[in-house]
Design goal:
By secondary structure, the protein is an alpha/beta fold. It contains ten helices and ten strands.
Length: 256
């Protein structure tokens, strides 16, 4: 297997609080990697470190490395705008822009300099189709995105991420605000998308992690440190034959 992302002894602090503790992990290309663990254990901090979203928070400092195709994304030479084009993100709450469905999908390509209407039309259709939404919205692309249902809004956010042709998609609990039907559609979509993209998903739902992921990483807190990687491996192993007792307690619901 080919590694798409590798972190080496990655630590991160918010001021004096250590939120990640020497995390070393290899995330494989065209696989779904689930990050699991209790609230506050560093999962979201870790996923945000993979496209430098934590840069936006005052007082953050990091040590270690995050390699994307063997290149350190925290090197001085890295263009962060280009990095976030390569490593897209879908957040917990659907957050379409207050504009039309079309303009949401076209937003990223326009920011990156594409102005030709025909080219934009092509990108919009391709990305919305890839997000399994085209059949539901093709006749109302000029309608407000905020009029869509929650599940449709989340798939539009995925389409918006896909429109700039990323290589990696980060998903921070993308189904937590959705009903079961919409959740199933997102989970099916994730399985389709991994053929073309590397996906990292944060989830509190153990059944979801078991359904959608190929690899799973269990994080927890230890004393005054968060972001401690306890165990990482194939999801089937993590859920049926974990090596660490703490992992077993968590996935079976006995964690306390």
């Amino acid at each position: 297997m080919t590694n798409k992302i590798e972190t080496i002894n990655l630590s991160l602090w918010y001021g004096e609080h250590q939120a990640l503790t020497e995390v070393s992990i290899e995330i494989q290309k065209n696989m779904v990697t689930a990050l699991i663990g209790p609230s506050g254990c560093g999962k979201t901090t870790f996923i945000r470190a993979l496209n430098r979203m934590n840069d936006l928070i005052e007082g953050v400092r990091i040590s270690g490395e995050v390699l994307l195709d063997n290149e350190d994304i925290y090197a001085d030479s890295i263009d962060v705008v280009h990095l976030r084009k390569r490593v897209g993100m879908v957040f917990q709450q659907p957050n379409p822009f207050p504009m039309s469905i079309y303009d949401n999908a076209a937003y990223g390509p326009r920011i990156h300099g594409i102005k030709n209407r025909g080219k934009l039309d092509e990108i919009v259709e391709r990305s919305i189709r890839a997000a399994a939404l085209w059949g539901e919205v093709k006749d109302r692309l000029n309608k407000p995105a905020l009029a869509l249902s929650g599940g449709q809004q989340q798939r539009l956010c995925i389409a918006r991420a896909l429109a700039v042709e990323p290589e990696v998609i980060l998903m921070d609990e993308p189904c937590s605000a959705l009903d079961p039907i919409a959740t199933t559609k997102i989970e099916d979509l994730i399985q389709d998308l991994k053929k073309e993209y590397t996906i990292v998903i944060v989830t509190h739902n153990m059944q979801q992690a078991a359904r959608v992921s190929d690899m799973a990483a269990f994080f927890m807190m230890e004393e005054d440190r968060a972001g401690v990687l306890v165990e990482y491996g194939p999801t089937s192993q993590i859920f049926t034959n974990p090596e660490d007792k703490r992992t077993e307690d968590y996935v079976t619901g006995r964690f306390g």
